[in-house]
Design brief:
By secondary structure, this protein is α/β, with parallel strands linked by helices. It folds into two domains: 1-157 and 296-339, 3-Layer(aba) Sandwich (Isopropylmalate Dehydrogenase), CATH 3.40.718.10; 159-295, Isopropylmalate Dehydrogenase (3-Layer(aba) Sandwich). It contains eleven helices and twelve strands. The chain is elongated. The two termini are 20 Å apart.
Length: 344
């Protein structure tokens, strides 16, 4: 990884207060990554709850040392270096392992703070910790489907696929998702040529490279034998994309496409629904992939794992995936992509 002489300031949100996110923040404070500047955004009660487990694992840190109490909802520790933001005026006890209303509210409060800092230019990138979509939707924000749409809406972006796009970066595989957190039957029922074309243009505009589009049906329909949708819906979008100057290929059989992309034949795979893209990514690189949102006015990335409530508070959380995401984020800020060297 190549990092600029003056490294960017990366804001990292804790995610759900009852999940492993607070422990991951404490792990970063205990052993800050070299050559990276971090601003850690966490709820004080969540960090206090995570600290005993970290101490038992031999990674203790006194995060409250140097706390600066200020105006507003949050106060910062040592801005510009390893730092924590404490939510003020909230006294409560966090029970790691089960997300309650206050935990979901803490996750949203930390996320809102990170978005505000990134939009203001106070930080150069936002790295988000894992949240419980179910808990946030049930307790705080009905209809919440995840970080990506929430952040995009906060930035004034309206149309997924056209304005912004969810992608995942692994060491030798880069995947974009045409649709995200939708029931499969809904994702397929609403599939249209224009939405595929919009996603191709968004991907080409913000990332570029050789783009392969996965087919809908087995063997991309086998010339209509296994379904006509690939020829009727997907192929016209690819043809129009080529006409507009995009280096796009397909529709290609999804059962072999990801292996072809890994070998360097393509830079990106556009998967047509959530699990079509994420099963290969997480099978290949679970714990080392980076979630990257294209199209935002600032750089936003995330880990590829969840809240891991079953181990929260026990000092067992593995911080290596988050550290890997931080390295990738710094590389993205420097204009690098994991497979850039393979491009002609």
């Amino acid at each position: 990884m190549s990092v600029q002489a003056v490294s960017p300031l990366l804001a990292i949100t804790q995610g759900d207060s009852a999940g492993v996110g607070p422990e991951l923040l404490l792990d970063l404070l205990a052993a800050p990554p070299l050559d990276l500047r971090l601003l850690l955004i966490g709820e004080a009660a969540a960090l206090d709850a995570a600290a005993p487990g970290l101490e038992r694992s031999g990674r203790a840190t006194s995060w409250r040392d140097g706390l600066i109490v200020g105006e507003g909802d949050f106060a910062a520790i040592r801005p510009g270096g390893p730092a924590v933001l404490e939510r003020l005026g909230v006294e409560r006890r966090v029970e790691p392992g089960e997300s309650q209303k206050a935990d979901a509210a803490g996750a949203v409060a930390c996320l809102d703070t990170g978005i505000e800092l990134a939009r203001a230019g106070s930080v150069q990138a936002l790295v988000t910790g894992p949240v419980s979509k179910e808990s946030i939707a049930r307790h705080v924000l009905p209809g919440f489907r995840g970080h990506t749409d929430y952040i995009a809406e906060a930035c004034g972006l309206e149309r997924y696929g056209s304005d912004y796009l969810m992608t995942f970066l692994a060491a030798d595989l880069q995947v974009a998702l045409l649709t995200t957190h939708l029931p499969l039957v809904e994702a397929l029922r609403n599939l249209e040529t224009e939405m595929i074309l919009e996603a191709l243009e968004c991907l080409g505009r913000h990332a570029g490279g050789r783009i392969a589009v996965a087919g809908i049906n087995p063997h991309a329909g086998e010339g209509g034998l296994l379904g006509r949708e690939d020829g009727v819906i997907v192929a016209p979008a690819i043809e129009e994309g080529r006409r507009r100057g995009l280096d796009v290929h397909g529709p290609l059989s999804p059962d072999s496409l990801f292996a072809r992309a890994r070998s360097g034949e393509f830079d990106w795979v556009l998967a047509l629904y959530h699990d079509q893209g994420l099963i290969p990514v997480k099978t290949l690189a679970f714990g080392s992939a980076t979630n990257w949102t294209l199209g935002l006015p600032f750089l936003r990335t995330s880990v590829d794992h969840g809240t891991a409530f079953e181990i929260a508070g026990r000092g067992q959380a593995d911080a290596r995936p988050l550290r890997r995401v931080l390295e990738t984020t710094a590389s993205l800020f420097a204009g690098e992509l994991p497979k850039k060297a393979s491009r002609a």
